[in-house]
Amino acid sequence: LNALPDYVLLDPTLLVGTPGHITASTGYDALSHVTEGILSTLANEMSDTINKGAVLEVLKWLPVAYNEPQNVKARAHMQAAAAIGGWMLGHVHCNSGHSFAHVLGSMFGMPHGYGCAYAMPYVTEFNAVEWPEKTKMVGGLFGVKCAGNEAPEQIGKMVCDAVVHLRDVVLQMKPAKELPHDRARFDEAAEKFMDAAFQLFNPRKMTPADARKILDKIYA
How far apart are CA 83 and CA 89, in angstroms? Predict the structure, then answer.
């Protein structure tokens, strides 16, 4: 928290022409900040109001920035949403999705935005068992329509699929298995997740066995 700035200068023209894969991965990092912030145990009514607005901003403008790299308006909206995500990160933090991104980065050199994009759908699915209504609310931001009689596991799967669709179809991010990794170290990675800071704010307690299952889904 001592590193938080007093002022931030945002100039969207600096981002014009950023390659698509960098736009997608950094945009997904911003999306994970505000989505995980909603699904953090430190979340409250005020932070949810702010984070929900930022999620909608990213969902509207990230595909535009990806498909139109010269679009200054899209870059400006994404900068604003990313700044909000950084601001909220200092207040409600993130959940286990960021724990995965940090460990995958440190162990396998995975770029942080990719780690967020790969982990967030499956961590959200995992947490739905504990927080079905809040997961449903997040799903609504992604356009998921629930009938109202879904089991928590069904809600989690529906939201997971929507997040994966954005990643794989809309933003065309490459599969995790195409990036460097070592399956022989997956059990070691699963243990490391237990010591990662953002695990403290995850709605559902995660075991190494749970983390290993999520790893297998990420690299399927």
Answer: 10
Task: Read off the DSSP letter of residue 164.
Answer: H
* Cβ–Cβ < 8 Å for 126, 95: no
DSSP assigned state of 195: T
CA dist 72 and 77 (Å) reads 9
Number of Cβ within 10 Å of residue 86's Cβ equals 16
pTM: 0.94
Collapsed DSSP state (helix, strand, coil) of residue 218: helix
Q: How many other CB atoms are there within 10 angstroms of residue 112's CB atom?
A: 17
Confidence of residue 195 (pLDDT cuts 50, 70, 90): confident
Per-residue burial over 197-220, b = 16 or more CB atoms within 10 Å of its CB, e = otherwise: ebbebbbbebeeebbbebbebbbe
Residues 6+ apart with CB under 8 A from 56: 141
Going by C-alpha positions, the residue among 24, 6, 17 that lies closest to residue 170 is 24
- Is pLDDT of 1 > 80? no
Beta carbons within 8 Å of 73's beta carbon, 6+ residues apart:
12, 61, 64
Alpha carbon distances (Å) from 56 to 77, 81, 91, 147, 153: 11, 9, 20, 22, 24
pLDDT digits (tens, 9 = 90+) for 52-79: 999 999 999 999 999 999 999 999 999 9
Q: The tokens of 5 are what?
A: 């700035």
Give the span between the Cα atoms of 8 and 4, in whole angstroms.
Answer: 10
Name the amino acid, one letter, at 147.
Answer: A
